[in-house]
Batch of 2 targets.
Target 1
Amino acid sequence: MLTRLFSRIGRADAAPNGKINLPEQSTLIDVRNVVKIYETGAGKFLALKGVNMQVNTHEFVAVIGKSGSGKSTLVNMISGIDRPSTGEVFVDDTPIHRLNEGQLAVWRGKSLGVIFQFFQLLPSLTVVENVMLPMDFCNMYAPRERFDRAMSLLEHVGIAEHAHKLPSATSGGQQQRAAIARALANDPPIILADEPTGNLDSRTADQVFNLFSTLVQEGKTILMVTHDKDLAKRVTRAVTVADGEIVDEIRNP
Ligand code: ADP
Ligand code: MG
């Protein structure tokens, strides 16, 4: 499964005639008729009302919508953090809705990089140790390669000089870059980000967004929840969620 996941990813190659050969596109995320009902003290709450959504390889998709519309619920269905009440979710043909917790943890660790608004770095580990954690957890890469790999990822996101600090000794923007490096640790084909710039000032948010654009150019597929209308204009497709439904979709040129 993994070799297949990785073989689909790859940079666009320049042919001898100078034309760019874009890698072929295929459906990577397939959300089918997903309904999510939360049981609350006040009764049942219908958070997703039969959502259908597909994301192709190499797309950069923004999910926008008001607070409480169901954006995080939708992303959590794809990461397997939460389960649909009914419906199906396939990620590269893996039926996420059917995996048990143990299978989910292993699958997620190798196939997805997840980024949250509040970074969720482990506070007692240094930045570089945080980035090594997914490799340790999934036993990916030889143990003695992990440190060098983590350092090169930190270089890629521009914070190698902060590698040995605790997260609390770095800025919000640096912590989010560390979280992005951690999300890339096992070279997953897909990055899911839930309001990754929601806690950053506009300049830092712009830098983090540019880093995402670079990752898409490098072959990643990104699904990003954002409140920022300007950022949503700079992705390949923006999907609007309202009251648990997809109500609009804009493809940017
Ligand atoms: P968004 O991310 O768009 O702000 P959410 O997906 O977090 O929205 O939430 C959608 C709706 O579902 C909201 O009305 C929220 O209160 C409700 N909700 C989210 N999580 C739970 C939960 N665990 N239990 C009950 N209701 C929830
Ligand atoms: Mg949310």
Note: Residues 71-72, 194 surround magnesium ion (ligand 2) (CB under 6 Å).
Target 2
Amino acid sequence: MIEFEKALKLILENTPDPAGICKVPLSDASGRVLASDVVSDVDIPPFNKSAMDGFALRAEDLEVVPANLNVVMDIPAGTTPSGPIGPGEAASVMTGAPIPQGSNTVVQVEWTSGFGEKTVKIDRSVNAGANVSPLGEIVENGATVLSKGTLIDVEEVALLAAVGCDPVPVFELPSVAILTTGDEIVAPSEKPGPSQIRDTNGPALAAFVRSLGLNPVLLHRVGDDVETLRRAVTEGLEYDCLIMSGGVSAGAYDFVEDVLKELDVTIHTRRIAVKPGKPTIFGTHDNKMIFGLPGNPVSGIVIARLLVETALRVRMGQNNSGIVTVRARLTKDIRKKANRAWYIHGTLSSGNEITVTPVANRGSADLPAAARGNCLIVTPKGETLIERDSTVDVVVWERSW
Ligand code: AMP
Ligand code: MG
């Protein structure tokens, strides 16, 4: 049995690099990972830009206020000033429009007698540079605005659009297959017969994979016999990542590890000092990675969120791919055994202070408890009591609270 951190390290060391690079339209780029640095082809703003609706003028003309200035031009957004302005002159200018040469500041319209007249009375003085965003202030032409390995979210899409990056170079998505094992497992749409249960891991793992922006293929539900399993795994090894559920413990019908070895998969981890999820297998075969997750429903989900997600993000080329934790105040004592690190579903609440409350659970089949939680409380190996009011690490995921 190896430590959780060691297992994570081993998994990441053996996670294959992203497959290749392709270009996608900007409109399809969110959720993808940038495959190269992105450089701006423009200055932003591209001219000295007014940040207000008002009057562009020379700050020097406002040494005495109120001041009356001649309005010599009007500059709506999207137009170019017809020429420079001189002393005693002003241009009415709209937000986002270039200010004319000769002007060095903008006075907002609220501090003036208003638009539409040949002269304007300016009531308040302003400093030179006020309400003007100078050329290149935000981004200089040629500057790197985003780096390779960045996950593209809403803000990144906006920035890519601003610098004209369309289509966008991204890493190809790994293909992911899911294979659930167990003679007792039936489809969720079926009414289980005696001694049967519904397959919760297949749909859950598919949803998990989809949450990473990938398109999983739900391969099969297979029974616990070596021959069928071998055929299904052989098919699963066609994919960049094969996620299996069940058949990895010490049972007489747990054949996953044997079949993987038989098919030349190199096994890097097979027992991890973590609860839930101890019998987790990670293996590689050429450029493919294979996870054998425990069949217990909560175990599979927890290991997916902790280990599979981290590995898949690396495989997708994302550079900040680690497990995301926040610190929170624990509202109840947690008692545990010292032998492993425990990851316990909790409810995280935000507000003036972040607190976390462990969800009472009846073990790793307790899906209602897992569903009540919105995070995982990290309780380290070696500890037996984590006291109420202590500060703990909490694993969070997107939209988890
Ligand atoms: P295993 O890892 O195959 O020994 O399974 C451990 C426990 O998880 C057993 O109680 C199984 O019935 C249950 N289990 C295995 N696979 C699934 C699945 N796909 N959906 C729900 N429960 C499962
Ligand atoms: Mg089984």
Note: The chain has seven helices and 27 strands.
